[in-house]
Amino acid sequence: MLYVMLIAAALIFAIVLYDKPKMKLVFKDGQVSSHSGKVDKMFLHKCKEIVKQHPFDGTVKVYQSRKQYRVKFSKGVPNKTRHTLRSALPGSKANNKKR
Predict the structure, then answer these.
(1) Which of 52, 62, 57 shows the shortest CA–CA distance to 77?
(2) What is the pLDDT of residues 41-59, one digit of tens each?
(3) Containing H/E element for 10?
């Protein structure tokens, strides 16, 4: 019985620590060097435009929980660029239509 509890605890621990973003973008020298996951075409296009204006090196991970997006940036992404990338997301408040 103890081994079943240990296996269950190990599985729960592995699920919690497993990093599973919806999309991951890697930027190098002002270009999108690679991307993985389900990347929206418009978001990718906006990211390329933003990176051309403000070149940087770093990664952006986008997580989805229900209808909201959560974004994690590496330390190489400047703060002003972080704000513009967040507003470029398809589910952000800047892209919502007003009634």
Answers:
(1) 57
(2) 898 899 999 999 989 999 9
(3) helix 2-17
Instruction: Copy the structure tokens of residue 60.
Output: 């952006």
3 state DSSP class of 85: helix
Strand 23-28 and strand 68-73: the pairing is unpaired
* pLDDT attached to residue 99: 52
| E-state strands within 1-99 | 23-28, 31-37, 58-65, 68-73
Which residue ranges make up each domain of the chain? Answer: 18-88
Count Cβ atoms below 10 Å from residue 99 Cβ, excluding itself: 3
Rounded CA gap, 38 and 46, in Å?
16
